[in-house]
Amino acid sequence: MAREMLRQGGRSARIQAEVHRTVQELLKSMDRSEITVPMIAEKAGVTPSTIYRRWGDLSELLADVAVARMRPIADPEDTGAMASDLEAFILQYVEEMSSRVGRALLADVLGSLESDAPVKCCQYTYHHLETLRERALARGETPFDIDNAIDFVVAPIVYHILFGDRELAPDYCRALVSRFFVK
Fold this sequence. Notes:
Layout: H1 10-29, H2 37-44, H3 48-55, H4 58-70, H5 82-97, H6 100-110, H7 117-139, H8 146-163, H9 170-181
Helix pairs in contact: 1-2, 2-3, 4-6, 4-7, 5-7, 5-9, 8-9
């Protein structure tokens, strides 16, 4: 399991940043199946034991890098209404997560069953949905249930992204959101 840093900043933070940067560079130029811990260590200027001590194995490191890349950098768009906020969020989520990069990130997160990477990834989605719910409350709208939004809107989308069994067209995503609000 990937270990959390005990202190922010300092040498550990610099090592983590450099290893993450190196992994991202390698993933741009080669297939993940060709990447090894010794290769990452050499390019990052650390020893392989540093990587093994910090992340345990390659799948944990790839998951940690994926989670860091999935961390939201901004709140979801505020469209002025709860339903359109959720629709805008879902359309952006699908665009990002169904891309080649998004699918690879999901694969890395899910390929790391020993870490808390899947939980962290899920927390990002919950956080965005909480933001949308709080906006609805502030506007005086009846807020939606976040767990139900996960079950009825997000989960089908993630399933289709992972299994690639259907195109996630905007109309399909809008229909999921519409059905969610019709009770």
